[in-house]
Amino acid sequence: xxxxxxxxxxxxxxxxxxxxxxxxxxxxxxxxxxxxxxxxxxxxxxxxxxxxxxxxxxxxxxxxxxxxxxxxxxxxxxxxxxxxxxxxxxxxxxxxxxxxxxxxxxxxxxxxxxxxxxxxxxxxxxxxxxxxxxxxxxxxxxxxxxxxxxxxxxxxxxxxxxxxxxxxxxxxxxxxxxxxxxxxxxxxxxxxxxxxxxxxxxxxxxxxxxxxxxxxxxxxxxxxxxxxxxxxxxxxxxxxxxxxxxxxxxxxxxxxxxxxxxxxxxxxxxxxxxxxxxxxxxxxxxxxxxxxxxxxxxxxxxxxxxxxxxxxxxxxxxxxxxxxxxxxxxxxxxxxxxxxxxxxxxxxxxxxxxxxxxxxxxxxxxxxxxxxxxxxxxxxxxxxxxxxxxxxxxxxxxxxxxxxxxxxxxxxxxxxxxxxxxxxxxxxxxxxxxxxxxxxxxxxxxxxxxxxxxxxxxxxxxxxxxxxxxxxxxxxxxx
Length: 479
Fold this sequence. Notes:
By secondary structure, this protein is α+β, with helices and mostly antiparallel strands. It has helices at 15-26, 124-135, 191-201, 220-224, 253-263, 268-288, 296-316, 324-339, 379-382, 389-404, 411-429, 437-458, 464-473; strands at 6-7, 42-52, 59-70, 79-92, 103-106, 116-119, 139-140, 143-147, 159-161, 169-173, 177-181, 184-185, 212-216, 238-245, 251-252, 292-294, 344-346, 358-360, 366-368. A hairpin with a 5-residue loop joins strand 18 (358-360) and strand 19. Helix 10 (389-404) crosses helix 12. The radius of gyration is 24 Å and the shape is globular.
């Protein structure tokens, strides 16, 4: 195996200040930027690493920056440090035409004055550098590149950026590996690395095992000097990226479902197989990591959270208000069971499961990917054990979304897939989620409420999709 490479680097003073006006305009336009609708008023530099010197033909900086945004648009007094983002900034004298879509801007002053900066992942050379750093277990400044010594990484694999809209960024290397780079990052154990590593130790073949990963250690001196907030420094590093085997020729579950719908083909066999795959992952996670029992106190907290989200959603989306009493009954029914002494098992789960998080190989095998959970949720919450039915509810909602995104809508297709998925789950887990209808209804209701708020804010034309589920789930017989 290659010897680890260690290199100490320094970044020029004034770097972030020179980039600040360009990043304020560019960052909010990115698909993965979470603070849309609120202006960026400034940045705090969490960490900066020079990967290629800017004095060369091609320079490359790795930055962790915290964006400052007002809590309420137009109210600067409420400004606070917001999310921390991972940026890879390329530096050139001028961009060749092929890199025009990656342009961030032209730097007016500071250490990069007169140079052009751009999103470096569009450029093969920076992507090649990241793979080589992972292959050689490099340490460059505060960046550490780790790998599984049992897996080989060949040199000189040709990179290509995945251009589909994502909440992160991905680079495919020679149809052999895919590197997922987290854009919005927090310090601590990232479930997108933690859970696949745990599943690999269990020998679960339903999740591609991590081959290598990239982390950053925040400089203690920067934290103690007051340059960073307490949110920027903990004893654990930031997980920045994970390299996994690329499933060549795999079909995304969402795209596959839509293709079958368009052709009028039955999807029940695939849904059943996907249910088995989900149950196998849940079973392996329950073996690998601790489980807990949820009693009255714990369930009361869960029910309170669901009810609070419903109340907030009804305030934000008036169309939801007539259904609020029926939806609330889904949560009170769960609370009543807990009050009677019923308990449930909670474990680590995927956390954000839907058809788009599933891949079917050319051989017909299903895999689950993207274990980071809902990125908007705090990391501690995403790592908490939860009932496995939460993942099941997410997938049931995804079948409904697929069936209602085509014209004409096909609710019977969704009902068939939902039943097949639960049957497949039962085959592998030994327990059918439908045998606990109160718990399943509560989690599916909570998910549908989330969808209503999301669609009302971002895609109003899609609002009828979750509203159809709301109508069903608020009824006396929601199945």
